[in-house]
């Protein structure tokens, strides 16, 4: 769930610890491998979703760099917590595109593409984490 909030990796880590603790008698190695694959997918989606959203709407290198810088600022400073992690890439992308010479309307559209990409990543992460938790509970109950 956004790089600063590693939801799926934390869920996976908890399940992995339980599997080790029970010597893989309750949670099988194949289930752990499936969950590991889903965790890797989640991480890839987290780090590429904003970029893909921006590129789909015509981002230039200025917008991409602006979005990355905005993400880093949101992660490091987070003056508004989770909101900063979502809004700063949007602001960074728009700023980058404006610096690159695009008009405010086009820059804003590209910034919204970044935001949509991140929101899709959150939905995917919540779905993966929820499915992993439900599967884990079903196995141990």
Automatic annotation (TrEMBL):
Signal peptide: none
Cross-referenced Pfam families: DUF456 (PF04306)
Keyword terms of this UniProt record: Membrane, Transmembrane, Transmembrane helix
UniProt xrefs under InterPro entries: DUF456
Protein name (record): DUF456 domain-containing protein
UniProt KW Manganese keyword: no
Transmembrane segments: 7-26, 32-52, 64-90, 110-137
Domain of life (superkingdom): Bacteria
Lineage: Bacteria, Candidatus Berkelbacteria
């Amino acid at each position: 769930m956004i790089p600063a909030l590693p939801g799926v990796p934390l869920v996976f880590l908890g399940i992995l610890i339980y599997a080790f603790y029970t010597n893989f008698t309750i949670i099988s190695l194949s289930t752990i491998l499936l969950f590991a694959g889903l965790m890797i997918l989640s991480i890839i989606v987290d780090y590429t979703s904003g970029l893909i959203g921006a590129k789909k709407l015509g981002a230039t290198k200025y917008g991409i760099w602006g979005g990355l810088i905005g993400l880093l600022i949101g992660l490091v400073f987070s003056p508004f917590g989770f909101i900063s992690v979502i809004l700063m890439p949007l602001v960074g992308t728009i700023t980058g595109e404006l610096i690159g010479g695009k008009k405010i309307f086009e820059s804003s559209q590209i910034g919204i593409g970044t935001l949509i990409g991140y929101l899709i990543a959150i939905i995917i992460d919540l779905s993966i984490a929820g499915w992993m938790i439900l599967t884990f509970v079903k196995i141990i109950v």
